[in-house]
Predict the structure.
Amino acid sequence: MPHTTKLLFIAGSAREASLNKRLARLGADVAKANGLAATFADLGDYPLPIYDGDFEAKSGMPDNAKKLKALLLVHHGVFIAAPEYNASLAPLLKNALDWVSRTRDEGEPPLHIYKSRVFAIGSASPGAFGGMRGLIALRQTLEMGLGALVLPDQIVVPRAADAFDDQGHLKDKGLMEMYKGLIQRLAHAATVLRG
Ligand SMILES: Cc1cc2nc3c(=O)[nH]c(=O)nc-3n(C[C@H](O)[C@H](O)[C@H](O)COP(=O)(O)O)c2cc1C
């Protein structure tokens, strides 16, 4: 039976009214509308302590880090909508990436979970730059820190508090098309390259 490529959409914000969750949810809806298997996951459902080596040594890996890794494992392409905090990553996202980077099953090569998936990134911000400075930091973490393949294209939604219509679509049709194209490329790359 042919293997179906599955895409995961997450946001680096747990806030109920998060603009980045809106972007991630929209991505999952767009993917499904185009016949792709897609999941939206809320990082708020996976609370984790701030990473601390002593905590890890004493208590081991938190269940939610294992659950997050398991979630990544059943998807081949991952889209991350990342809020920009002071021109960098939001701690919720960085902490989740860090914890998952520490999980390692017996015999598993380091960072295999990241190295065997394809990533695409985007951001939404009420500001004029749309969070694109934070994406530089996220790209650095994913590519240089975690060994992940990140598509060169990204989606940036500036003035995001007013960027979505009542259906959750981007009002800017050009931006919406760009997002659809990015999702198609993520699905294609994940299909070709999944580990
Ligand atoms: C600590 C903090 C730092 C922030 N720094 C930036 C920033 O550097 N650039 C930016 O565009 N927005 C910045 N913001 C505003 C966020 O983009 C805004 O709160 C956004 O809605 C957060 O994403 P979310 O809606 O997905 O939660 C910052 C917000 C916080 C709380």
Residues 11, 13, 15, 18-20, 83-87, 125-127, 129, 131 surround flavin mononucleotide (CB under 6 Å).
